[in-house]
Amino acid sequence: GPMDRYQRKIGCFIQIPNLGRGQLKYVGPVDTKAGMFAGVDLLANIGKNDGSFMGKKYFQTEYPQSGLFIQLQKVASLIEKASISQTSRRTTMEPLSIPKNR
Description:
4-stranded antiparallel sheet; alpha+beta
């Protein structure tokens, strides 16, 4: 469905106005709230929660207060512009260390 393109962007980083960089960790509904939401980890204790809302865990945050739920339409254009390749470019430049002896 239409949500798939956002789901595929989970893990990407978006630059949120007035907040800074955040990592997209969840896209979808949130209990008791109307509409769709993006769950973002701000990677610093400047958010509102730990990825939980009303006792339900939606995503894992790096810090106890680095999670934030934002109405999807407010960040939809940011998510669409974000590219997954940007976040993984670091790791593709150096060979992944895969143990040879299993």
